[in-house]
Design brief:
Elements lengths: L6 E3 L11 E3 H12 L6 H4 L24 H15 L5 E11 L2 E10 L2 E9 L4 E5 L2
Antiparallel strand pairs: 1-2, 3-4, 4-5, 5-6
């Protein structure tokens, strides 16, 4: 029996007009991608008290350290992995962060109840893009 990943409006940091509804693995991928661009504690600030771990990878672009330092990217990978595994629909996940030409990319490969999924979120520090989904 297939697992229901739920249904939501397609969107990363904005909602398209007209709205597009997604379900299945694509919905899971977008939900996880949003966890990577939501500031820590943002859900509490709007009154949502449900547990929701998140980080905002865009903030890594303006930090005082160099993203050319592999140690910083390894730390980002570890934090992203911790955040993404908080979603109960994720059985296992790997994260690879890279920085090139002024763009920070976080590639995610995971395994959920319905099988494998993958996506990439890229940011220049101002905007974020969902580059590829299941």
């Amino acid at each position: 029996m297939p697992t229901d990943y739920g249904t939501d409006v397609l969107g990363l940091d904005d909602i398209d007009d007209p709205e597009t509804v997604v379900s299945g693995e694509l919905n899971l991928a977008y939900a996880l991608a949003r966890r990577l661009i939501t500031p820590t504690g943002a859900m509490l600030e709007i009154g949502d008290t449900a547990p929701y771990d998140s980080i905002d990878i865009r903030l890594w672009m303006g930090a005082r350290f160099s993203l050319l330092d592999r140690t910083m990217l390894d730390d980002l990978q570890m934090q992203a992995r911790q955040v993404l595994t908080q979603d109960e629909r994720v059985a296992s996940i790997t994260v690879l962060a890279t920085f090139a030409s002024g763009t920070l990319s976080v590639a995610v490969q995971g395994f959920g109840a319905e099988g494998p999924f993958s996506f990439i979120v890229a940011t220049n520090g101002v905007t974020a893009q969902f580059l590829r989904g299941p």
